[in-house]
Amino acid sequence: MASKGLKRIGVRILLLPASSAGIFSLDPGRRRFITWFDMYRVFKNLTFCYAHRLWNYSGRCARLHGHNALVQVDFARTALTPTGMVVDFDEIKALVQSYLDEELDHRTILFRDDPLTEKLKEWGEPVVTMDQNPTAENLARMIFDFVKAKGLPIASVQVWETPSSCAEYSERNA
Questions:
Q1: Residue 99: which domain range?
Q2: CA-CA distance, 131 to 112, in Å (whole number)?
Q3: What is the mean pLDDT of residues 114-125?
Q4: Helix, strand, or coil here: 136?
Q5: Residue pair 156/170 in contact by the 8 Å Cβ criterion
Q6: What is d(CA 94, CA 100) in angstroms, rounded to the nearest whole number?
Q7: Residue 133 contacts residue 111 (beta carbons within 8 Å)
């Protein structure tokens, strides 16, 4: 019996065996369970070094500084390829590490409206501009979009700016 002034609520609990593996998602619009499926995943850690600053930001990151970034790319499939893989690690390295090395490594990454952009270009410095501040979140999204456009089964990208600070991007139905 509920106490006076308290409402009785129902709770739905889903118990799964400890050996279950997969991804579970909840449709927030309908508040019901929608999927549970087995999933194979592989992760590859890659690195690049970059400088950046956050434009129109009042914290320490408003000043130009650098990071030795660790990028973790996560790939997922419900079924393995005929060779028994999610994605070949060599293919991941060839595609993603090459992109990081050729496009981002040892470059200054800035918001396109940052006045420092033009000055650095005048001095011959390699600059990458973005349509938003070059936060770890936005870098994760940029890398994710690049890999997705190449047709690999990307599930998420994490960008670790420091050993204790990470941002992740994934898509709901990636």
A1: 40-170
A2: 6
A3: 96
A4: helix
A5: yes
A6: 10
A7: yes
Q: What are the DSSP calls for 61-120, one per residue?
A: GGS-EEEEEEEEEEEEESS--TTS-SS-HHHHIIIIIHHIIIIITTEEEEETT-THHHHH
- Predicted TM-score (pTM) of this structure: 0.78
Q: What is the pLDDT of residues 128-159, one digit of tens each?
A: 999 999 999 999 999 999 999 999 999 999 99
Angstrom distance (rounded) from CA 166 to CA 132 = 18
Q: Which tokens hold the place of 54? A: 């956050």
What is the total count of domains within the chain?
Answer: 1
In the chain, DSSP finds a helix count (H) and a strand count (E) of 4, 8
Q: Is the pLDDT of residue 122 over 50?
A: yes
Does a structural domain hold residue 12?
Answer: no
For 122-152, letters b (16+ CB in 10 Å) and e give: eeeeebbebeebbbbebbbbbbbebbeeeeb
CATH number of the domain bearing residue 113: 3.30.479.10
Q: In this prediction, what percent of the chain has a pLDDT beyond 90?
A: 76
pLDDT at 5: 56
